[in-house]
C-alpha cells in the first residue's frame, strides 16, 4: 500500500492518506521517487510505479550454472540505485547493472490498465556485473550530492536547454559477512566512481565504454576508509546514508573509553560526514588488479576523476575531516532498530521495535542551509 503524508490535517485526523493498494513482493529494497523497488525468493528485482500500481520492469538475477531453480544468497539484493535509465543492484557478493527502456506504454493506452493482468512488464538481464572479493552482511548505497547541487538542479529546471549532467559518484557503506579477514565490527566506506565519458543520450549497449559504471569486470568500488562500529549478536543495528554524505548508524559501542568494542548492553547512534576526496583514475597495487575492492586501499595515483557537481576537493576525513559524532546512547535498552536522517532539516528519526518513531533535532535551524553538514556540537533533543 502507498501512502502520502499530509501534515496540515487537523489534529486527531490520520496524517497518512492511502494513495493506492497493489500486489507487492516480500522484501522491499527502497523507494526512489515514485518507484518502489522490491525483491522476492527468486532474487529478481521488481520496479513498481506506486502512482499506477503497475509493475514496470523485472530485473533478472543471473542464473547459477544455468539452473533457474538455484538461488544463491550471493545474489540477494541489499540496495539499489537508479541513475538515468540504468539501475545498479548491490547484492551480497555482486553488483549488477541493468539498462531499462526509456519509456513504457502510457497508462491511458487503450487496453492497458494498472490492474490488467494481460500486460507483461519487460524482463531485463544485467548488462554488466562486478563480484566483491568477500560476502557482505550489510550495505547501503547512495549517489553523492553537495549543497551546490540544489542550485544546479534549480538552474536545470528553468533552462530546458541545459546540458545533461554526468553520472554521480556513489558512496557505499558495508559490513562484511565474515570475521576473517575483515570483522563485522568495522564499517567500510567504498566509492563507485562514474565513467567521465558517460552521456545518457549516447549509450550503446554493445559498447561497455558508454556505460555510467562497471565498464569492465575489474571496475568496481574502491576503498576510502574504515570506521570502528562494533555490533552485538541479537542486538538490532542499522546504517543509513543521507543525500549529502552524512552517514548514521546504530551499533553497540556504549563505552566511550573503548569505542572499538561493544559494551555489555545498550546501543549508540553515531555518525560521520563521509570523506570527499579526489578520485583516482586507476588504483595500482603490486600483484593486484586495478579497482579491486581490497579493504587496504594501497598506492593511489595522484590523478583526479572529472565529474559534474564538484563533489570532491575535501581532504581525507580519516586524517583531517570530522571525527565520528555520538548523538545518543541508551545504556540499558536495546530497542532501536531503524534510523533515518533529514540533512536539510537537521533531524534524525529513530524506529523502535515497539512500533514508535522518535524524531530528534541535531543541527540548529539557522545552520542547516548555511552548511548542510552534520554538526556534532549541537545537542540532540526532541
TrEMBL record:
Residues 280-318 are annotated as: Disordered. Residues 282-292 have a biased composition (Basic and acidic residues). This is DUF2415 domain-containing protein. It comes from Pycnoporus cinnabarinus.
Amino acid at each position: 500500500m502507498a501512502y502520502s503524508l499530509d501534515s496540515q490535517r487537523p489534529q486527531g485526523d490520520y496524517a497518512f492518506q492511502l494513495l493506492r493498494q497493489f500486489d507487492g513482493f516480500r522484501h522491499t529494497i527502497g523507494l526512489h521517487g515514485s518507484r518502489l523497488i522490491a525483491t522476492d525468493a527468486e532474487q529478481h528485482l521488481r520496479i513498481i510505479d506506486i502512482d499506477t500500481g503497475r509493475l514496470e520492469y523485472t530485473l533478472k538475477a543471473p542464473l547459477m550454472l544455468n539452473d533457474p531453480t538455484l538461488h544463491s544468497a550471493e545474489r540477494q539484493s541489499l540496495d539499489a540505485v537508479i541513475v538515468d535509465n540504468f539501475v545498479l543492484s548491490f547484492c551480497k557478493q555482486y553488483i549488477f547493472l541493468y539498462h531499462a527502456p526509456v519509456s513504457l506504454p502510457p497508462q491511458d493506452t487503450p487496453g492497458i490498465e494498472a490492474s490488467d493482468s494481460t500486460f507483461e512488464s519487460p524482463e531485463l538481464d544485467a548488462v554488466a556485473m562486478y563480484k566483491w572479493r568477500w560476502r557482505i552482511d550489510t550495505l547501503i548505497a547512495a549517489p553523492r550530492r553537495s549543497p551546490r547541487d540544489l542550485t544546479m538542479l534549480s538552474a536545470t529546471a528553468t533552462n530546458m536547454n541545459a546540458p545533461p549532467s554526468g553520472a554521480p559518484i556513489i558512496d557505499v557503506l558495508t559490513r562484511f559477512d565474515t570475521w576473517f579477514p575483515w570483522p563485522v565490527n568495522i564499517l567500510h566506506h567504498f566509492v563507485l566512481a562514474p565513467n567521465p565519458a558517460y552521456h545518457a543520450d549516447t549509450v550503446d549497449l554493445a559498447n561497455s565504454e558508454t556505460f555510467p559504471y562497471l565498464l569492465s569486470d575489474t571496475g568496481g568500488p574502491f576503498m576510502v576508509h574504515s570506521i570502528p562500529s562494533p555490533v552485538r549478536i541479537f542486538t538490532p543495528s542499522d546504517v543509513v546514508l543521507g543525500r549529502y554524505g552524512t552517514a548514521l548508524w546504530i551499533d553497540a559501542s556504549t563505552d566511550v573509553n573503548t569505542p572499538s568494542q561493544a559494551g555489555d548492553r545498550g546501543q549508540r547512534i553515531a555518525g560521520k560526514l563521509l570523506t570527499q576526496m579526489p578520485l583516482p583514475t586507476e588504483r595500482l597495487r603490486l600483484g593486484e588488479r586495478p579497482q579491486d575492492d581490497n579493504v587496504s586501499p594501497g598506492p593511489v595515483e595522484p590523478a583526479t576523476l572529472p565529474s559534474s557537481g564538484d563533489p570532491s576537493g575535501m581532504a581525507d576525513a580519516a586524517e583531517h575531516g570530522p571525527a565520528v559524532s555520538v548523538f545518543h546512547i541508551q545504556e540499558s535498552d536495546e530497542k532501536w532498530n531503524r534510523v533515518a536522517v533529514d540533512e536539510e532539516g537537521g533531524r534524525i528519526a529513530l524506529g523502535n521495535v515497539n512500533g514508535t518513531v522518535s524524531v530528534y533535532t541535531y543541527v540548529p535551524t539557522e545552520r542547516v542551509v548555511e552548511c548542510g553538514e552534520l554538526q556534532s556540537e549541537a545537542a540532540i533533543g526532541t
